[in-house]
DNA sequence: CGATCGTAGCGAACATGTTCGTTACTGGCT
DNA sequence: AGCCAGTAACGAACATGTTCGCTACGATCG
């Protein structure tokens, strides 16, 4: 019984039954103990989720920076694979969104992204500040897109914005009405790549 | 007793004692009833928070798009005021981060931002997709920065990343070590403006 | 060798979000 | 008038996260 053990059980339960079933009591039962015992290894649920993410990120293969290849394409590929990794567990993405993960594998990810940006001659400060934006964007996209096809009970919740946008009267919200067709266009693959590319463009732009 | 009434009480309690105190039971007690009664007007806590945000956004003054003025500066100012509005209630920002707000005032905000982007000749699709990024960024910055000086109990939680970054051994994470000084530099005012400017640059970039 | 202290471990408890089943009431339909 | 359907309202209940206080034990120090 250790922190690693708790996280491992948590991951297993999540893979089998979803994050919703990963409760302290459930984990405790799985480990033949009471809920309070888990707090020795994990400060709270948020930290547990962070640890779970870190373990997931570990499975991500991060190819070493290839000097010859196009760094932009490499970076976008990496970010896309992050997002897709979280697509399978949208509720974990939502949970991690309000976190600032700091596990070793997550740090490795940050380091790799930084390396790619620096390889692209992005100025140091812009690179440093940009990593956060890129990762936040990746997690955020997983949280949004993934929850779309998740549990049927939440279908009307986040889609409320989409509905509101579609029904927005052109008198009150002229601009929304004007872009109505564009705002919901594109599949997530396209939007994902576009979002990352946009931020990277912004980071490269010499203002 | 109505939805507006519930939201009003919730806002008052939040202003006086913080969002943590805004519990269903507390609101119910404030309205001399039981917790279950609130669910007639509000689907769940998330929706309540969304409604609270919408009310806050209503207080934001959104100047009509001034054709003559610099649209970029106007847009950045607007986004900054959004972020600062949420600075006072970081936990609300965190809660809203996983939401897709869709209240009337929030739609108005979206419409205004869209107007500014279109006024800047940003292509329609880029504008439509960009609004989300900008608002997500605004809320996210409030959630992160604001929680820094919030309740003292959470001090070590989100700062864990900062600590990890500072202590990152340069052997394992060379790039992090390389940008260490830059990654924590700048006050939130600077970073805020920089983030928005970066995204806008990306939206303008003709790729 | 003995005392002390920090920590694992745990049972019970508390506050919270949410749901269920039930009651009262009000509007409209026959 | 009589009936019905939808809704406000609510009390009780359940599952959850988290904390408190207690026990046991092992290491560390006098």
List the helices and strands and how they pair.
Two copies of one chain form a homodimer.
Chain A: H1 3-17, H2 24-30, H3 45-58, H4 71-87, H5 90-97, H6 104-119, H7 124-148, H8 155-167, H9 174-178, H10 180-183, H11 188-204
Helix pairs in contact in A: 1-3, 3-5, 3-6, 4-6, 4-7, 4-11, 5-7, 6-7, 7-11
The structure holds a DNA duplex (30 and 30 nucleotides).
DNA-binding region (chains A, B): 23-42
Protein name (chains A, B): TetR family transcriptional regulator
Keywords (chains A, B): DNA-binding, Transcription, Transcription regulation
Please sum up the structure shown:
With 207 residues, chain A is mostly helical.
Could you explain how this protein is built, in words?
Two copies of one chain form a homodimer. Chain A has 207 residues and is mostly helical. Chain A has a domain at 64-204: Orthogonal Bundle (Tetracycline Repressor, domain 2), CATH 1.10.357.10. Chain A has eleven helices and no strands. The model of chain A is unreliable at 151-156 (pLDDT under 50). Chain B binds a DNA duplex (30 and 30 nucleotides) through helix 2.
Derived from helix and strand composition plus strand pairing, the structural class of chain A reads: mainly alpha
- In total, the number of strands of chain A is 0
Task: Please report the number of helical segments of chain A.
Answer: 11
Instruction: Name the assembly state.
Output: homodimer
The CATH homologous superfamily of the domain at 64-204 in chain A corresponds to: Tetracycline Repressor, domain 2
Q: Which stretches of chain A of 5+ consecutive residues score pLDDT under 50? A: 151-156
């Amino acid at each position: 019984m250790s922190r690693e053990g708790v996280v491992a059980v948590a991951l297993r339960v999540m893979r089998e039954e979803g994050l919703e079933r990963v409760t302290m009591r459930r984990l405790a039962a799985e480990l033949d103990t009471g809920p309070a015992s888990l707090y020795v290894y994990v400060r709270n649920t948020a930290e547990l989720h962070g640890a779970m993410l870190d373990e997931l990120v570990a499975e991500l293969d991060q190819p070493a920076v290839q000097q010859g290849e196009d760094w932009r394409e490499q970076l976008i590929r990496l970010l896309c694979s992050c997002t897709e990794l979280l697509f399978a567990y949208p509720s974990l993405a939502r949970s991690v969104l309000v976190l600032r993960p700091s596990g070793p594998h997550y740090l490795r990810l940050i380091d790799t992204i930084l390396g790619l940006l620096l390889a692209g001659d992005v100025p140091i400060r812009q690179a440093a500040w940009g990593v956060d934006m890129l990762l936040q964007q990746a997690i955020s996209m997983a949280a949004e897109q993934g929850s779309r096809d998740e549990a049927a009970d939440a279908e009307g919740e986040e889609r409320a914005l989409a509905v509101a946008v579609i029904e927005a009267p052109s008198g009150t919200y002229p601009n929304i009405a004007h872009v109505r067709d564009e705002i919901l266009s594109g599949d997530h693959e396209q939007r994902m790549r576009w979002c990352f590319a946009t931020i990277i463009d912004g980071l490269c732009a010499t203002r």
